[in-house]
Structures are given as C-alpha cells and as structure tokens.
Design brief:
six-stranded mixed sheet, alpha/beta, 38% helix, Rossmann fold, 2 domains, 11 helices, 308 residues, four-stranded parallel sheet
Length: 308
Amino acid sequence: MTSADPPGAVGRAGPAGLRPRLPSPVQEVVDERFERHGVRLLLKRDDLIHPDLIGNKWRKLAPNLAAAAGRTVVTFGGAYSNHLRATAAAGRLLGLRTVGVVRGQELADRPLNPSLARCAADGMRLHFVDRAAYRRKAEPDTLNAVLRAVGAEDALVVPEGGSNAAAVRGCAVLGEELAGRADVAAVACGTGGTLAGLAAGLGPGVRALGVPVLRGGFLGGEVRALQTAAFGGPRGDWSLDERFHFGGYARTTPALDAFAQDFEQRHGLPVERLYVAKLLHGLTVLAAERAFPRGSTVAAVITGRPFP
C-alpha cells in the first residue's frame, strides 16, 4: 500500500508491488541417483519467488488478489494449510481483509496450532465449520451461509488450495519459464491447479508430471476440469504418478524424513516435507526404474520451503 491508499485497499501496484523474483531461478544439482542413469536434474526454485508468498502460492494467488480490487478475500483450508498461510500473508502485505474458512468445528475450542496462529497474526479472521459443511462448501446455499456468517457477502471467494481458472492461467507462466529447458517438468500436486497450468505453458515436446500428495485417484478429473475452465479444453502433455503420497495429505513417514534429510545434506537445500520431499523421492524412484530415457533432463518444481 502507499500512504494515499485507504485502509483495506490494495496498493496501486497490486501484487506486483511486492516485487516477486520472476522468473524464478533454475539450479542444476549433480546427484548420483540420477547421474548413473544418464538423467540431468534441475530444480526450479519457485520457493525463492517471495519470502511470504512462496512458489505456486504466488503464481496462483497473484491473479486472484488483483481481481479482488480491495474486496475481502474468503478462502478455505485445513488446519495446516499452506494456502491459508499465504493468503493471510498477502492480506497483511496488501492491506486486504482475509477470512479463512477452516475445516473442523472442533478446532475452534482448541489452542491454535502454529500454522493457524500465523494466519491470525497476519490479520486473517478464522471461521471454523464442521466437516460435513466443509464438504459442501462449493454448494451455493452453504457458501452463502458462510459469507453471511463472516459479513462478507460481496467477497472474492478463492477455492481451497487457490486452484481456479485465474490461478491456472497464472501457473501457465511457470511452464513458459521452463519451456525448452527440460524434457520433463515435475511438480507435487494437491488440488491440481499448478499441474494444469504448468502443462499448458510448457509447449510441445515437454511432458508435465504430477506427483499427488493425497490419496484417492481423483486428481486427473480435477486437472482436466481446471484446464477446461481456464482454456476451454485440454492443454499440454501431462500425467500423474499416484504412488508417492506416503499415506495422504499432511502425512509423512520416518523413511520420507530420512530421504529429505539426506537430500538436504547432499545439496544444501531445505526440503519441505509435505509436498517437495514426496516429489523428489518420487523422481528418485522413477530414475531408478529407468522411467526417464538416458540423456533426459528433468526439472523438479520446488513449490515451497519448510515453515518455521
């Protein structure tokens, strides 16, 4: 915001005024687990875009925040949602009122975990709903009831994970930044928006690979629906490998933690556990399975970093 902006208004420069580091840097790492199979590994360091709006959170939120035009932003997430944290930080930085609708009415009577406490410290109003209502959040009656409850009937509503048509178009720029740099561009997937945009922006001859961090096998349909909403139909060459969720969202195992610690020691890169570690582990397994032809270049999109 500038000194002339009224409270609650987005500064004239909008999200671009936050000075993101774009395009994000590409870093080559030499890792014997890839090198022995003739595969070159690049890291697309989207975690360095902005200190508070990290990686795909910037790419998905920026077009939505620009569309908010000073209105309240209402969005959704679980108790440990990185999307909620990023939206709250954006609200603080841009002077926007934000509301986070949190899955789990029971959480309202408990002390806030560090993630939700950070949201509250950044000025986000937290509104807890029971899990049955949360599942119906996209239904007009349920959504309208939530908006009335938080006093934001005219709000800009951003879906869980930030994935909508505007976000997908924002993520297409990620693909454009990697076009011609790799044979495969891989990303961890929660709601599918980043993969949908990445695949669209890569152009011919480059394959996008999604590594879902949730169980369920539903993500393919979500990606297709998001591409249709954003572009009117399918775009790009993409696929999913659903083997590397380690039990589901927000779940890890000692083996995954050991892998992440080893990667950190090898390459000096802090590895976020819920998304990035699963992606990098999956790529290591795929390299061992010779899923990438010798001579291939694989780019792993680093979408986040560990939160304190």
